[in-house]
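*** Query protein ***
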Amino acid sequence: MAKLVKVSLVDQVCDKIKENITSKQWEAGFKIPSEQELANNFGVNRLTIRMALQKLNTLGIVETKAGEGTFVKKFSFRKYVSEVTELFMKPEMLNDVCEFRKCIEIECVRLAIERATSECILELEKAFDEYERVTNEVKEADNIDIDRLIEADLEFHYQICKASKNSLFVLAFIAARESIYQYLKSINVHRCQIIENEGRSIIEFMQNSTYYHKQIVETIKNADFQKCKKIYLEMIDLATPI
């Protein structure tokens, strides 16, 4: 017979505090009761409370300020994942990004066509407008600020994931965001090299890129999944110099 795993008092306290936070009983900025008050409320000693708070501090859920107390921190899943990604991400993982995007983002496109609200479409259009603005600035300067371009591009694709109304797909995209960022940096440098070798203008590259993004918006609005899928695959294929 399998034995039940005993949960430590520290983990039990952590769970109770997290429950208060997730239920919005304690919101961001809320000052958590003192160690003694928590010890009395949870029926444990102060050392257990202190260890639980230290664990939550490490996770970025709460923040202890010297002389002030402990406060609920505004938790950013994206920031947290971005920081820990650096610990396990390896160069060879970039080869997996293309497959990941084809599986996750194409499905998000299909779901977005079915489920996107007018507010979702508006946010997607705003993301496209920002992407277009960045590309126009690039064309005027006749050079590419890769980092700004990628941030605008990521926000555009993130809005598509949000429009799918599938919270796990959104979390998956956020978790893979840093890897996708590195992939996009690699693919854009690769494409620029191809363009330069062919004697083409970087401006042409930017115009094509903007056109593809615009077409994705329009095909989602027109509920044309097959056309949108075709455009999407061309954009995320490393071998395609758009």
